[in-house]
Write a structure and sequence with these properties.
The chain starts with 35 loop residues before the first helix and ends in a 5-residue tail after the last helix. The chain is built from 29 helices and no strands. The protein is an all-alpha fold and 543 residues long. The chain is globular. The protein binds one DNA strand of 10 nucleotides through helix 4, helix 6, helix 8, helix 10 and helix 12.
Length: 543
DNA sequence: ACGATCGCTG
């Protein structure tokens, strides 16, 4: 019943004729830009004044400033101020030590965090739930969820206090490393799971494309009388858009509105994005108008999503209008804005313009993130400018940007397509050495590259390696191998592999059939080609 | 101290 398409969308028909692209004069939307830097400096000088006073101020005075700096995410500064404080002989209390642990965790310096943990005992304090939760979150953030669970077991055995947040942190940690099943198991051990825990599970299930299970958890909340809040609805709306059930998402939008929960900037941004992805740019732009009418201020994500939508349709002029509307409304472009524009120009075959924007980021003291580097590296590779791409790849390390599986895959693809097959294999070795595991994309790029370059042997080695490691090849993997075998005239082997593919439950797509049929025709095996052709038709693979 | 939105690889 919930899948009904007859959901009426109360929001969209009421869309105003308001043009979001006119400069705004409403004071509500003029941003009052606080300079974070000057606030930070003020806090530090205030701290130093306290530090040098004749009468030593109470520890709470320092604590207030430290708390402020942590809220401003100034972790390194907080750590150095605490060090100065202790150097002056002002000893931290438990709250300061907790704060220090928190700072080290945010900076992923867990060894330091745990040494502060030891200090808590040395000074005769007892860790509280905050201490333990912070350490568990620190472990989870680094992906060391198993360690967090072990830590949990230990502190429980020692009788230390945990609270409502503790299990939320662990459930979240498990979900974020893809262990949703384990997260659900953990949730099931809790008598009254919180709204947040339900949300974490529903979010993960939808991101892993399990809408039915996600719906079951939503239904469980309803049955148990747990009222859904704004974040729950945003998660459901986003997730159902993600699995392609946009009308269900709009159903949740209506449900939240009828429950008197007003959409916020997240809700509207999700709608803008999904409408852009459905190529309904007019409606996406209207949502921006609706949100302004509802006194919800669009943020950088709203504009980024809309701009990306226009770039996806190669509507560069409109995208530029969005950019100027955004600055008119006092919303500053961020790294992602630049990433979207760089990607837009590359899609538009204007790599030169993309490079200019990349340069502009330098001028604005913006450090491109991994995704931006990936975008440009891939764009350069695709037009054969491998050495330029390679320069950027090397530049990343110096700017503390981690190359990931996409970075390597793009470069490997570029190397393969420009006849540098040995270098491609060398880079595969290097990525593993650097702790980046190739995924199916990487493997398929390599197999394709080797086959096209006439190095079937290398392709077979990579394919065999995949099997040896217990991974399942996917359709593109089989297609690449089958095509490689056909190219070398090894039709029988190609057909044997095709049988194995089908037996393994990996069903051919239209490309598989095209490869096989054209190879059979080329080889004069017309009758066999026709058999495959009819099989393809009977499977309804022609659109 | 736990949850939600935008950009990158075949």
């Amino acid at each position: 019943m919930w899948l009904s398409r007859s959901v009426t969308v109360s929001l969209l028909p009421s869309i105003a004729k308001f043009s979001p692209f006119l400069p705004m004069h409403n004071s509500l939307f003029c941003s009052h830009l606080h300079s974070q830097t000057s606030l930070h400096d003020d806090a530090v000088s205030q701290f130093n004044r306290l530090l040098h006073q004749r009468h030593v101020p109470s520890i709470f005075e320092f604590g207030k400033i430290l708390g402020f700096l942590v809220r401003m995410k100034q972790y390194s500064t907080s750590i150095s101020l605490i060090k100065q404080m202790e150097f002056k002989g002002i000893l931290c209390d438990l709250a300061n030590l907790n704060l220090l642990i928190n700072c080290f965790c945010h900076l992923h310096k867990l060894a330091f965090a745990f040494s502060v943990f030891a200090k808590i005992f040395k000074r005769g304090y007892h860790p509280d739930a905050f201490t333990l939760n912070t350490l568990m979150r620190g472990l989870c953030d680094k992906g060391e969820v198993k360690e967090a669970l072990n830590f949990h077991d230990k502190v429980v055995a020692l009788g230390f206090p945990l609270d409502q947040y503790s299990y939320g942190i662990l459930v979240n940690g498990l979900s974020k490393i893809g262990e949703t099943e384990a997260a659900i198991e953990l949730l099931r051990t809790i008598q009254r799971p919180s709204i947040v825990m339900y949300n974490i599970i529903i979010d993960s299930l939808l991101k892993e494309k399990h809408p039915t299970e996600a719906y079951d958890f939503y239904y469980e909340m309803v049955i148990k009388g747990i009222p859904l809040n704004l974040v729950n609805y945003n998660t459901l709306i986003y997730g159902f858009c993600l699995v392609g059930q946009v009308e269900v998402a709009f159903g949740f939008l209506n449900e939240m509105i009828s429950n008197s929960i007003r959409p916020d900037v997240y809700t509207y941004n999700i709608l803008i994005d999904v409408l852009c992805k459905e190529r309904k740019l007019g409606e996406a732009k209207n949502v921006l108008g609706v949100m302004v009418k509802a006194y919800v201020k669009p943020n950088v994500v709203s504009f980024n999503a809309l701009m990306n939508g226009y770039y996806a349709l190669n509507k560069v002029r409109n995208a530029k209008q969005v950019f100027s509307a955004m600055t008119h409304m006092g919303v500053s472009p961020d790294v992602k804005t630049y990433g979207i524009m760089i990607n837009g120009f590359i899609r538009n075959k204007r790599v030169d313009k993309a490079i200019n924007l990349f340069q502009e980021m330098h001028d604005r003291n913006m450090v491109p993130d991994t995704v931006t580097y990936n975008t440009l590296i891939d764009g350069l590779c695709k037009i054969g400018r491998i050495s330029h791409a390679w320069d950027l790849f090397r530049e990343m390390r110096g700017r503390n940007r981690q190359a990931n599986v996409i970075t390597y895959s793009s470069l490997i693809d570029g190397l393969c397509k420009n006849q540098h097959l040995d270098k491609a294999i060398e880079l595969l070795r290097k990525m593993r050495e650097n702790g980046v595991q190739p995924d199916m994309y990487t493997v398929n790029i390599l197999i394709n590259g080797m086959c096209r370059g006439g190095r079937l042997k290398n392709a077979q080695e990579i394919f065999q390696d995949l099997l040896n490691k217990g991974h399942n090849p996917n359709i593109p993997t089989y297609n690449a191998m089958i095509s490689g075998l056909c190219k070398e005239g090894l039709l029988d082997e190609a057909l044997t592999l095709w049988s194995k593919m089908e037996d393994s439950g990996c069903l051919s797509n239209v490309i598989t059939f095209e490869i096989i049929i054209s190879a059979l025709f080329k080889n004069g095996q017309t009758e066999k080609a026709e058999v495959f052709f009819h099989e393809m038709i009977s499977r309804d693979l022609l659109k």
